[in-house]
Amino acid sequence: MNPPLVKVRAVREPDAGRNPLPAAQAETLKIDVEHLIFFYGEKRALEDISIKIQPNVVTAFIGPSGCGKSTFLRTLNRMNDIIPGARVEGRVCIDGQDIYRAGVDVVAVRRKVGMVFQKSNPFPKSIFENVAYGLRINRLTSNRSELAGRVEESLQQAALWEEVKDRLHESALALSGGQQQRLCIARALAVKPDILLMDEPASALDPIATQRIEELIYQLKAKFTIVIVTHNMQQAARVSDFTAFFWLGRLVEYERTDKMFTAPSEKLTEDYLTGRFG
Amino acid sequence: MISARTATPRKVLSALFVAACALCVALALVPLAFVLFFVVSQGIQSLTVEFFTHNPRPVGEPGGGMANAIVGTLILTALAAAMAVPIGVLSGVYLAEYPGSRFASAVRFAADTLNGVPSIVIGVFAYAVVVLPLRHFSTLAGGFALGVMMIPIITRTTEELLLLVPNALREGALALGATRARAVFTVIVPAALPGIITGVVLALARIAGETAPLLFTSFNNRFFSTSLVQPISSITVQVFTYAISPYEDWHRQAWAGALVLVTIVLVCSMAARVAAARVANIRGR
pTM for the full model? Predict the structure, then answer.
């Protein structure tokens, strides 16, 4: 049989008002979540979330405490797996592959989808060993000089190299809070993920350290797809291309950041952004 | 008016209470002070170079030492550690990793019970399972008895220390693509390692001073021996043997042995404390 002249693509019903991406880009989606429902035991923490994220953009998740934005972020690299009683329904596709399909290698998923946590969590090892950790356990480098090269490269990407290059073998715990967080970013970058999930990466940092992290996010966008959870709406406005507003476990609005912050289509979003609640 | 000088009933009561606490502390420390005083004052005069380099002399012959017993105690505790450290640490890892499972509760209960079993009973157990099949007393049997005593201590210490490691470290390792086992053995156990080592040293100090489990397992040996299948001398059993003997000279040797033993235990405890303090410093930052 001859191949069809016109390539027929499975047509997806565009989620009107929810997904600001044109349907034609569906093929190049980095993250494609469909009808995700998340349970903590009997409690439904997330209700029917669908969202499509393009490569090399920064997407911010905003919303009041307990709205499910962190929970949703953690479904994207299956970090919720370690919570007893957690259960997921629906599909989460990364590069078109459903990561909750049976037989998926969770370790491979987490290598592809890196994560930076709210509180910096350097291992009680040296600065070098922190960055080398992911490379070592995944056997990503074949010799010492390659390992050292990747460590340096990652620290430079995280804008930390100049500050630590003379004390790579000192304890990571001696670094300042902002440096520790950049170290954690370097550690995540070292395994060369495609996607970087950041769960309020600057919430425990002072304004100057926060600014550095934000500049970093802007630079990293060229290479990675970034999803950032933030409590700080100004931060979302500054760093992100798209913003998703969560409320009570639902995705209320997902829109280009400039549009969301100037002309949100949902009343609830407007009330939240103008500080009427939350 | 707030006056610092007036003795209100509340202040008097407070002072009385603090005084009572101080008195109780002093009372608790008195036995320790007396033990140390007697052991040092009685033992120091017999603590000669010969005591460390020579074996016991026959009855009636003056001099001699406890070289065989000191070496014996070192071998016995090393054997016990070789047996108890792997089993104890791995059981502790299991308890910390699967805290809710039924098996874990059973293990925890068993460890606590074993911890409370009188040491003489552990000796009887070792006699039954090691000495009887081998048909004679041996170093192995003594090391086994001490190891059995050490396991529950190390298990529970390891479990408690692992539970203190922040969960954020585990998540950090998992997010980098570590498997659960990998995260445990490359991040969580190393983070708790200084504390675990402290626990092991304290456990060693404790079992080094045990006599009862050795009486009918490793027994005693008047000669220098490093054989694992022969009876072996130990400081504690030697002190016991000398102390109940009718000879003045042996009594002096017993005091010296007690001094060596107390010194070993004190040095171990202090080393463990220093290590723990250093860990606390690192964590505190």
Answer: 0.79
